[in-house]
Specification:
alpha+beta, NADH Oxidase, 209 residues
């Protein structure tokens, strides 16, 4: 699947089919996560794969009782191994770099899952203290997110605000000259494609006369 298609079509899934995921597919998602960039290449992530229903039920209760999660056959706990980053980057590394690294790994995982035909959701609402106790996670390691993984039962279209709403030039809030507003080029082409088709069709008919 093309990268552009994966990026634009991936979305959060909360309804899953009652199908198990083969381990080799789960492992491909995890391997993709490990290729994410990380500060100083510390790779401060660790993944706990949860498949047993009893354990998934316990985790759901720690996630503000989001019971839809039970439909996902696999939950992946993404952990942040703080000591790896702290050694190199001290306080800023622990507070910022470590979290950024794990977030990059999560995004890789989500994109790979979609490419392989899976649905997923990034979950951040959970009781960290109780989750660590349940899974025997050491004190210097923090769970950063839970990923629900499975074969999606529904595929919905999601919308995004125009790129112009999120981009400034030279300083925050400073917009580019509208006369040069041509990004992204795909949007410009979409707006003009009907006109181009019409002109091409018209020219083709005239050439056949």
């Amino acid at each position: 699947m093309e990268l552009d298609k994966v990026i634009k079509e991936r979305y959060s899934v909360r309804r899953f089919k009652k199908l198990e995921i083969p381990w080799y597919i789960v492992s491909e998602c995890l391997e993709a996560a490990t290729y994410a960039p990380s500060s100083g290449n510390v790779q401060n992530w660790h993944f706990i794969v949860i498949k047993e229903k009893e354990n998934r039920e316990k985790i759901v209760k720690l996630c503000e009782e989001q019971y839809w999660m039970l439909n996902a056959p696999v939950l992946i706990i993404v952990c942040n191994v703080l000591t790896k980053v702290r050694r190199l980057f001290d306080v800023r590394g622990e507070a910022l770099y470590a979290v950024q690294n794990c977030a990059a790994a999560i995004e890789n995982l989500l994109l790979k899952a979609y490419e392989l035909g899976l649905g997923s959701t990034w979950i951040g609402a959970f009781n960290e203290t109780e989750l660590k106790e349940m899974l025997n996670i050491p004190g210097d390691i923090r769970p950063q997110a839970i990923i629900a993984l499975g074969y999606g039962q529904d595929f919905e279209k999601t919308t995004r605000e125009p790129l112009d709403n999120f981009v400034s030039f030279e300083e925050y809030g400073k917009r580019e000259d509208k006369s040069r507003n041509t990004f992204p080029i795909s949007e410009t082409l979409k707006k003009n494609i009907d006109t181009l088709k019409y002109k091409l069709g018209k020219n083709d008919k005239e050439n056949k006369k």
